Amino acid sequence: MDCAEALMLCRTTSDSENCVLLSQSFQCFASLCYHIQGANGSGKTTFLRMLAGFYRPSTGEILWNGHNIQESGIFHQYKLQLNWLSLKEAIDDKFTVLNNVQWFELLESKEGKAMLALELMGLGRLANEKPRMLSMGQRKRLQLARLLAIDRPIWLLDEPSVALDDDGVKLLEYIIAEHRKYGGIVIVATHLPIEIEDPMILRLPPRFPRRMTHVDMLDRADIS
């Protein structure tokens, strides 16, 4: 059973003025969904990027099945379990919609799910079009189709509902539920409402500069 665990994470920004994510600890087992919540600038994306291994925490550690993901040989195994979706699309407009999904299948040595994934996301009729012809919502659906085609157990989703219409959000909710039904782990950060059954809520504290003036504090609505 896959288990992702974060222990007492803190990441200090390069200018050493801010500390994002103070003492966030959690465990996430198969079929669980963690919903990361917090104000703008609280570090939701930073948190996900640390879980993905893109950032190293300044203190603390991230464990996968009991092993620190930064250990030699562990990270390569860990990243093969991850599906990462962010606001950066990584969509190549030179290829067709179908090719954009098939390319990731080839990297995974998996084939045959690309067209099915596109059809599920309502993009089947656009499979041979170039992505530049797609709306913003359709481009997000294309990103979600890649999640389905690659089929890795741990999903890290950063604002997955941005640009989706109501039908698109319902599809997102459906694929999250189906992924969990078969033992998948979902860790999602979003400020937009989506329906998730029995999510574990992890609320990040506001990010406080280490040195704040009185004027800074008066300008912060989240300081009472």
**Overall radius of gyration:** 19 Å
N-to-C span? 43 Å
Give me the number of helical elements.
7
Contiguous uncertain segments of 5+ residues: 13-17, 209-224
How much of the residues is beta strand, in percent? Answer: 15-25%
The best one-word shape is globular
**Any idea what the CATH architecture of one domain is?**
3-Layer(aba) Sandwich
**What kind of sheet is the major sheet?**
5 strands, parallel
Reading the helices and strands in chain order gives EEEHEEHEHHHEHEEH
Organism: Flemingia macrophylla
InterPro entries: AAA+_ATPase, ABC_transporter-like_ATP-bd, ABC_transptr_haem_export_CcmA, P-loop_NTPase
Keywords: ATP-binding, Cytochrome c-type biogenesis, Membrane, Nucleotide-binding, Translocase, Transport
GO molecular function, one term: ATP binding
Provide the descriptors you would attach to this structure in a database record.
disordered C terminus, alpha/beta, 4-stranded antiparallel beta sheet, 224 residues, Rossmann fold, 5-stranded parallel beta sheet, globular
